[in-house]
Specification:
Elements (H helix, E strand, L loop, with lengths): L2 H38 L25 H7 L2
Length: 74
């Protein structure tokens, strides 16, 4: 590797290192923001509404077939 190629490789490495530092700073900032957002939503910070259980609606009343209801009274 000649001197020019070595200098070019060093420059590219320095650019790469600078990008990695910027990426790490950005990731740390996002992690801080996420932790702050989670702290805002932590239990006890505000009341949690009771869950609504719509998955199991009450059973419908059972009815006998019409033919059985009519024949009973006669």
């Amino acid at each position: 590797m000649n001197t020019t190629e070595w200098a070019d490789a060093q420059r590219r490495q320095a650019e790469h290192d600078a990008l990695i530092v910027r990426l790490a700073d950005r990731e740390a900032e996002r992690e801080h923001d996420l932790i702050a957002a989670c702290d805002d939503c932590a239990p006890g910070s505000r009341p949690v509404p009771e869950p609504v259980n719509d998955l199991n609606p009450p059973p419908a009343p059972r009815q006998r077939p019409t033919s059985l209801r009519r024949s009973r009274g006669r």
